[in-house]
Structures are given as structure tokens and as C-alpha cells.
Amino acid sequence: TAGTIDPTTILRHLVAILSDEFKPDRCVGVLLNDTGTIAKTVEATQREIMDNASIFSEAIVMHACKELCGIRIPNIKHDVRFVHDEGAVKSGVKSVICAPLLAHGKAFGAILLEIHTANRRWTDEELELLSSACGHAGLALLTAVLTRTRLQHERLAAMGETVASISHSVKNMLQGLRSGAGAIDLALGRG
Question: Which strands form 106-115's sheet, in the order they lie side by side?
């Protein structure tokens, strides 16, 4: 992701890496927009990575982003907060860890790792590792946003300088025309 300032590209790389390292049944990456709603999703399984994740628990993702901390649910059926969540029920998830993509107290999105089999559960150590990775990714996303903002400011400044230069040149030409017209008027008046 070095040199990448596109948040979706950063998210796709992160989802691919986490899917490879954690070996979840499914990894869902989410980016939030400025209003705090889901703007972009990426899904990875052991076979493929694709944009626009199929149904997942948005409630768990939004909880992690709102609380600004990771969440581990060893057994979704025993968690009263999410046992009836439509996304959790329809996705068939059994165990979940989710961590927000944080930088300087702002959630840029989250990563949700799902297990769909009953014989495996996420551990606290895995949540800690995911939270650490998401913290680094959050900093990468913040850097991308700041870089893009800086580039926009530089483009606007360059445009302003160009407009000022053109304006100066036009003023000089007009002044030259006025001076020439004044000289002609003076010559004709003496004439």
C-alpha cells in the first residue's frame, strides 16, 4: 500500500492481508463517509476478494466504530446485543471479531472477521492483533486523506498562480494598447 492514496485500494490490500493471516470464513472491510455511514465495502473469502460485500452485521461494525474499540463475540447466539441482528442472522456467522480503522480518535471504517462454523472461536489475542493492524491501517487512511487534501490545495494554488499570471499579462497588453492609442491621439491632435 506504500504510495497509495486511494482509500478503497488500501482497504482491498488490508482485507487481502487479514484474510490470509487470520483465515476467517469471511473478512469484510468497511469504509465510512464523512457522515459516519457505510460508503464502501470489500469482502474476502479464501477464494476471492470482491467489492460490495454480501449481507453482514452492520450493527456490529457500527458499534465498533461508535465505541472506537474492537469487539469480540465468541458465540453470536449468546450476545443479547446482536443475537437478533438481521445481518448476523442472515450471514450465518457464529463468532466475530471487529475492530475500527482508527486514527487520532476518528473511525474511518472497520474490519469484521467472521467464523461460520461452530467448532472455532476468536480469541482475545486475535482481537488484539486485529485492533493493532486496524490502527496502522487507520493511520494509512488518514495519511491518504491528508495527502489528497494537500494535493488539492497545491492544484488550487497553482491554478491561482496561473490565473494571476494571465491576468497580469492581459493587464500589461491592455496598458500597452492604451499607451499606443494615447500616442496616436497625441500625434493626430498635433497634426
Answer: 49-51, 38-44, 26-32, 106-115, 95-103, 71-73
pTM of the model: 0.78
Which tens digits make up the pLDDT trace of 14-43?
999 999 999 999 999 999 998 999 999 999
The answer to whether residues 52 and 41 touch, using CB atoms and an 8 Å cutoff, is yes
Residue type, position 123, single letter: T
Query: 121-131 burial string, b = 16+ CB within 10 Å, else e?
Result: bbeeebbebbb
pLDDT one-digit tens code per residue, 129-170: 999 999 999 988 888 877 777 767 667 777 777 777 787 777
Would you tell me how many other CB atoms lie within 10 Å of the CB of residue 19?
23
